[in-house]
Amino acid sequence: MNNPLGILVMNSQLKKKFLAATIITAGMTPMLAYAQADGGHTGHASESSKATNTPVTAPGMNHGSMNMPGMDHGSMDMSGMNHGSMGMPGMNHGAEQAPAQGHDAMKAPTKQAETSKGSSAMSGMTHGQPSSSAPASVHNMDAMDHGDMQMQGGSAPPDARDPNAYSDGYVRNAGKYALPPSEKLVMSDMHNFGSVSFDRLEYVRARGEEWAAYEGEAWYGSTYNRAVIKAEGEVASGKLQESKTQLLWRHAVSTFWDTELGVRFDHGQGAPNREWLAFGFKGLAPYWFEVDATAYVGPSGRTALGLKAEYDILLTQKLYIQPSVEMNFYGKDDERWGIGSGLTDGTAGLRLKYEVTRQFVPYIGVEWSSKFGKTADYARAAGDSKQETRFVAGLSFRF
Fold this sequence. Notes:
Elements: H1 4-40, H2 45-48, H3 110-115, E1 193-206, E2 209-221, E3 225-236, E4 239-252, E5 257-268, E6 271-285, E7 289-297, E8 303-310, E9 313-314, E10 319-330, E11 342-354, E12 360-371, H4 373-381, E13 387-398
Antiparallel strand pairs: 1-2, 1-13, 2-3, 3-4, 4-5, 5-6, 6-7, 7-8, 8-10, 9-10, 10-11, 11-12, 12-13
């Protein structure tokens, strides 16, 4: 330890350590002074940043440990502060202790506090509102008197303009400006039209026998009144075997329904002709069922009722299936015609149709026909079957 060199070495090491500590102390002194000055003015930072909208983020702050007894917040004016943009996920407000902070003394505009009951008392502060451009007040229409509002309607006022004042007394289809009869406007329901249509013109095969059947009508008239001829029958071996022809007056009583009034003539091979008065209706029932119902009254107390219905089931815009049902009732027996009283016969058909055009519709199908009651007894006595299945192929057309 008496070595002078060792003492010099030790003294050199101490000098180095002392010099390093001095340099560090000199460098830290300005930083500490700046931090102390900045911390003393933190509470007044909001006043100097009224014009800035930069979000304040303080994730590491713990307000629970802050104690600011000398700070008076009552004199602060925070009307321009926007708390909605502040993001402070790490702040703990539950443990704040600020007994001397006079938040109750904060002064906000009294008018807004009165008009918006559910809003904050600090008018300029928006606490998490969706938009910072929201109106500062809520419209209150409780005091608005709607009784003074005049709605349109009622009688015209005495000084209202006469709608005919500018026509100089002229009316339509009269006076010197009226058109001649040849040039007058005629609506479509004032015209008379005509049409011929056949719903069935078909070839029929049943029990090894063949024949042709037809059913159609022709009419002429206007939209509301028409003269109509209905015809249906069967032709076999070049001869008319049976036919029913009706001459009717058809009148439209509603949008989808027509009434019919007229006469019917029946013709049959080996049977006397029959005449009937006819009254019925024809039209389109709900769900697009086409219905035709007619009652008949003839001489000697004869009565009859005919019912028909059909429906179109679309498979495509042009191809469709048409089921149909027909039933006939008679009030008296007519042995010459092979007809008994009550329900005499019924037919159910199913036809597959294809619309080449609206006017030209070929089809194929099948029908099931049956006779009932005394009519079936007459058929068996004549050697005919009371039930049969018919295969048909034909054409529907109109022009």
